[in-house]
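Hi L.,

You mentioned the student needs an example of a multi-chain input paired with its predicted structure. This one should do, with 707 residues in total across all chains.
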Amino acid sequence: MYNPLLQIGGSALACPDVTRRRLLKSMMFVTAALALPALPPDAVAAPLSADQKTTLFRLARDIYPHEGFLDDTPYQAVVDAIIVEAEGSPAVADLLSKGLADLEERSQRIYKTNYTAIPKPEEREGVLRSIELTDFFQKIKGGLLMGLYNNKELWPKFGYDGSSWETGGFIDKGFDKIDWF
Amino acid sequence: MSAKFDLNDDSLVVIVGSGAGGGTMANELAQKGVKCVVLEAGKTLSLDDIENDEWAMFSKISWLDKRFSAGGWHGAVNHPGLPAWIVKGLGGSTVHWAGVSIRFQEHEFKMKTTNGEVVGANVIDWPITLAELEPYYDKAELKMGTTGDVTGMPHLPWSADFKVLAEGARRIGYTKMIAGPMSINSVDRDGRPACQQIGFCMQGCKLGAKWSTLYTELPKAVETGNCEIRTNCMVLTIEHDKSGKVTGVVYADADGKQQRQKARVVCVAGNSIESPRLLLNSASNMFPDGLANSSGQVGRNYMTHMTAGVYAVMPGEVHMNRGTAVAGIVRDEAHNDPKRGFVAGYTIEKLALGLGFLSAFLVPGPTGWGRKVSGALEKYKYMSGVWICGEDLPQEQNRIALHPTEKDQYGLPAPVVYKTDHPNDTNMRIHAYQQMEKIYNSLGSTEIYNLPAYPASHNMGTNRMSEKPRDGVLNKWGQSHDIKNLFVSDGSQFSSSGSPNPTLTIVALTIRQAEYLAEEMKRGNV
Ligand SMILES: Cc1cc2nc3c(=O)[nH]c(=O)nc-3n(C[C@H](O)[C@H](O)[C@H](O)COP(=O)(O)OP(=O)(O)OC[C@H]3O[C@@H](n4cnc5c(N)ncnc54)[C@H](O)[C@@H]3O)c2cc1C
Ligand code: SF4
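Structure written out for the whole complex:
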């Protein structure tokens, strides 16, 4: 497996914006090399159940929690894009269903309940820490890294300005203004 | 007018790479009337290609050919395919560089003499001194438009973000806070505009206010009619004759076809991973360990600088993205004082990251997620941070090696980049973290994030200069000890890393080398 971006940009297959698509296009050779299990060509991608989709969404919110700061929309967009991808790729579908099954198995073993029903965020984080090095987890994390933090629509919320050359930079817009010390 | 040279023209200087070293070499030689061809593996770029977008530019111009991180540094796990962050494109890494242009201090040319033997390190003195390089530093600063006394250009104005760092530094007793020297125009100069504080210096300067060979040296070289630039041309091997002199290079052109360009002299400037790799990949019956490698030092002593990041949440808004990426530096720890627990010194450099990069690097790698990361990012506009850049000791086992089985898209063995900290690096990094904590605490910040090294943007030492041929690859002119018409014109020449960012020194060395080379060609010595 060879993937220079996996660890620094995430596998990131889910960001809806144009930038992301361009990044992906130029990185095709990388994403194509993702370590997905080899499946027989006739394997059928089983669609994710409603419960599985809910779990995936909970997991996404738990990876980069922003309660009261970001609403569900960007998380849902990342999850939806991954689900769409899984519908077209048996390998991705397999990665998701096995990853989710593993997550549920661990949740049942430790907390005797479904992942989504584990009440405390720290407890859910604990379960996720135990699978953080899996391709399944990294795929969702990579998608979120781009979908949340490389998402121009959300930048104003974080107070990040993004591109500035079109408007002449900050030379006349307070680049040197500071008043709190 | 661009020259157009024949593949069989054996009177040419062939330059491999168009970055700080190669681009400067091309212009210096062309101005002197020496005919040269630049072979650049990457594509042609222009200011139109430059976007204010971190990931878009990263994917557009980074060197993403197959490479492997190895050794004890965290990147072997967290950045397994990206040991270094450098550019594959016209202009090389001078498209992405931030512009910091510090001269070496006198003792930084003499680390062996200054500190004696350091256990576990392979330290030597440079075969040149500061006094010898000073006139060329002047020339380099004039060429690059470095703010300060030589050009007379004022340093850039202090951004809010740098004011924060400088105030914290002042509170802990530091005195050397300065918004330069930077090779960024603070006033219009050399046909390029003054900086508008756009803030994406490391994605390429949209205005051309920052020096890059892309829009300075390379077009100037072409204008003379003495230089031809061929992009999308990856040099695969350097060839030699029976006497051991190099005769030319074989390269893959834009269509993937192999071409053989003859040469009188070859200057290798592919940056410190590709340059030694090219020499190693050019092994022959006569040179079974690779070209210019009788010392066995080709690829060894790989240095990246001792680096680290520190980001902290301030009590008030900072908006670090507004203004130059490196808005100033603090030099109070740049001296050599072993009493601190390490030899050599480091610089504290203001470094603004956008939200995209900060999210990936605050806690890098697969474990970088969770409430700690997301909570910090919510406070982006309150954040300020620095990059620590300190001297990195040469160690033989830190090196570029050829992968035994993995090949890149050209069919060449892929490079494996070994890097393990020396205890000196570790001690220096801890010291820097402690100093930064004091600085940020003094400003009322208690939420501080220590970041490990990024993929290396400074790469040095893998074809080092040495007085004695057995200690290194090159003589004091950057000429191979073994092969008279083979030169190395990039940061791989460095005998030691010093604490300063390398590019000014690369350019100064290249100007000096070009002078020597042109003379030697005139005399018929090469
Ligand atoms: C984000 C970033 C910020 C930086 N900031 C600073 C700073 O503030 N100050 C500073 O001093 N330095 C800085 N640097 C470092 C600086 O960019 C490098 O030190 C400098 O560009 C190195 O010059 P070079 O000639 O060795 O290599 P490069 O500039 O990297 O050029 C090498 C060129 O050779 C080409 N090449 C490689 N192999 C081959 C081959 N086989 N055939 C053909 N072409 C080949 C490459 O495509 C590339 O274009 C920064 C670097 C980065 C990435
Ligand atoms: S801040 Fe200045 S140097 Fe940096 S990209 Fe903008 S104009 Fe160029």
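You could point out the following to them. Chain A has two domains: 5-35, 50-155. Chain A has a mean pLDDT of 81.

Best wishes,
N.
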